[in-house]
């Protein structure tokens, strides 16, 4: 099979449009259409459904793309590095994400790519703002704690965050787990809540999932950084809901205690978002693939 057809197929699959794929590959749209028809004829299956705007892949196309992408991307890298004498990673990527997971998880996962020459410029912020920046081309790739829904944005589930209700050991003594299990959130009355936001989104998510209710007490302390929330809880100022990855070390050394361990812990999904079609660029495709692979172990 002609590798050109497979390269075109992958570009269309990533771009979601014959027009965008034609622009990325510097080909005419009729050429793209002819190549996809030729490939569909060879595999004997429909690969894309035509829409008023763009195309959507069939399940056959999704399976084929998942199998092809690592190998075609590797060939692109070999061609650039060993034939043309350039490294596809020697580009600047504007990456954005929430401060805590970006610092604790994302950037360490990319350390070896930076050593190879990738230049990263990082923006930290909230999900909706970062996705707006992605749509406006201020960022190239975004780690989002909000499900991306905008037109022209493609997203991949990256990892699940588990949330834990934690306090310093003195609070664990004052709030025995059995009392919380029996009394629900009312057993926590009198314990100051520490949050990174006045709306207490993590507390609301935990209360809804575990207690099937909404929190009724305002936060006793609000600081817009979960790392600072962690330090305040560790110092004994109150209790908080935190991502487990962020407080895992403190739980291990017992400077924090999980006040409750529900059978089904509250979870939230992180997404990796790019503008549709941008993964045809080898350096972004490699960065994206690296994060997806590393996140499997988070």
Short description:
The chain is of the alpha/beta class and 298 residues long. It has helices at residues 3-15, 18-25, 29-43, 59-83, 99-109, 111-115, 127-135, 169-174, 177-183, 201-211, 226-234, 244-252, 282-295; strands spanning 48-50, 55-57, 92-97, 119-124, 141-144, 153-167, 194-195, 221-222, 240-243, 257-258, 267-275.
Describe this structure in words.
The protein is α/β, with parallel strands linked by helices. 48% of the residues lie in helices and 19% in strands. The protein is built from 13 helices and 11 strands. It has helices at 3-15, 18-25, 29-43, 59-83, 99-109, 111-115, 127-135, 169-174, 177-183, 201-211, 226-234, 244-252, 282-295; strands spanning 48-50, 55-57, 92-97, 119-124, 141-144, 153-167, 194-195, 221-222, 240-243, 257-258, 267-275. Strands 3, 4, 5, 6, 9, 10 and 11 form a 7-stranded mixed sheet that branches. Helix 10 links the parallel strand 7 and strand 8 (221-222). Helix 1 crosses helix 3 (29-43) and helix 4 crosses helix 13. The longest helix has 25 residues, at 59-83. The two termini are 38 Å apart.
